[in-house]
Amino acid sequence: MKEISKLLDYRSDIRIVDATLRDGGLVNNFRFTDEFVKDLYQTNLKAGVDVMEFGYKASKEMFDVKDFGKWKFCDDEDIRAVVGNNDTNLKIAVMADVGRCDYKTDIRPRSESPVDVIRVATYLNQIPAAVDVIEDAAAKGYEVTCNIMAISNAQEGDIRVALDILGKTPVNVFYIVDSFGALFPEQIARIAAMYCEFAAKYGKKVGIHAHNNQQLAFANTIEAVGDGVDWLDGTYSEMGRGAGNCAMELLLAFLKNPKYNIYPAIQFIEKHMNKLKADGVVWGYDMQYLLTGMLNQHPRTAIQFTKDKRKDFSEFYKEVTSQE
Questions:
Q1: Mean pLDDT across 205-224
Q2: Is the pLDDT of residue 6 over 70?
Q3: What residues are paired with 92 via a beta bridge?
């Protein structure tokens, strides 16, 4: 049992990261209005959020700019149009997806960019390539996180080797990423202990990015907080790919640091998130996402089920279980 002080007190090292534009952008191809993005930035400032992730630094050679909104590519000029010089305590982040970004050319030196943090997303089999992106970003002056995706499908020994390799790089934060929404709090506790072991060895921090397939994104996140994890991802109204993420408003309500303020989040959700849903943008927990999470599968089949407006859950269950 965790001490009650873990719930009633706060750690000054905790950082809330808003991933609404990036993970939420996977739902609507990053087609957010300028008003939405500017209001989101102001909301994060008022709510005391520590880091705002704008989106991806995706390769324009690999992805057609006509098929996506601007936050798939996060040009510095587009970010600066929202944040100006960003003379605030809110740090600006973008994600570099290993194998899908032209990081050497598209990520400029920090002194020339409004961005503060580069979040490197990688699978275990891409760790050597991830190290190259991390070292490039750090050399350019950025804080760097490494988000190891799909760890629910990974062997513990492989994760340990990856963390040992990453620990020797200039990365600042190791991220626990439950890409499939398959993990339970008891598993998160064990994984967090492993990540924190390597973080202590190499002087790093640990973060968590949870998905809500089994309605455990918030539970897993607060479990991680109690286990010493400091960087916590959330999205407003849990907007994110498939079943979505840990809800920002839940985090703001839970964390006891007086610098966090839920009221601006409530106002933003009332004005913008409800409108997105009313306009037909679909995300969040549903039966199809439970099934892929339960089976520890990538949610792509559930996402297609949703796009096809299917409701035959029993048939879908037979389809996904036949893959086992």
A1: 98
A2: no
A3: 52
Q: Give the pLDDT of residue 8.
A: 63
Residue 272 DSSP label:
I
Kindly report the number of other CB atoms within 10 A of residue 6's CB atom: 14
In angstroms, the CA 73 to CA 94 distance is 9
Q: Do 246 and 232 contact (CB within 8 A), yes or no?
A: yes
Which two structure tokens, joined as six digits, stand for 317?
């269950």
Q: What is the chain's percent helix, strand, coil content, to nearest 5?
A: 50, 15, 35
Residue 280 reports pLDDT greater than 70: yes
Instruction: Please tell me the distance from the alpha carbon of residue 182 to that of residue 295, in angstroms, as a whole number.
Output: 7
Q: Are 231 and 205 in contact (CB under 8 A)?
A: yes
Q: Report the C-alpha gap between 245 and 207 in whole angstroms.
A: 14
Beta carbons of 90 and 84 less than 8 angstroms apart: no
Counting every residue written for the chain, the total comes to: 324
Domains of the chain: 10-278 (3.20.20.70), 287-321 (no CATH)
**Reported confidence tier of residue 160, pLDDT bands at 50, 70, 90:** very high
Q: Assess contact for 102 and 61: CB atoms under 8 A.
A: yes
Nearest to 113 by CA among 87, 139, 77, 145: 77
Q: Residue 231: helix, strand or coil by DSSP?
A: strand
Model pTM? 0.96
| Digit-coded pLDDT (tens) for 86-116 | 999 999 999 999 999 999 999 999 999 999 9
Q: How far is CA 114 from CA 42, 54, 191, in A?
A: 16, 11, 33
Tokens at 216, concatenated = 């455990």
- Residue 318: partners with Cβ closer than 8 Å, 6 or more residues away: none
State pLDDT tens for residues 44-75: 999 999 999 999 999 999 999 999 999 999 99
Supply the mean pLDDT for the chain: 96
Cα angle value 67/73/75 (rounded, 5°)? 130
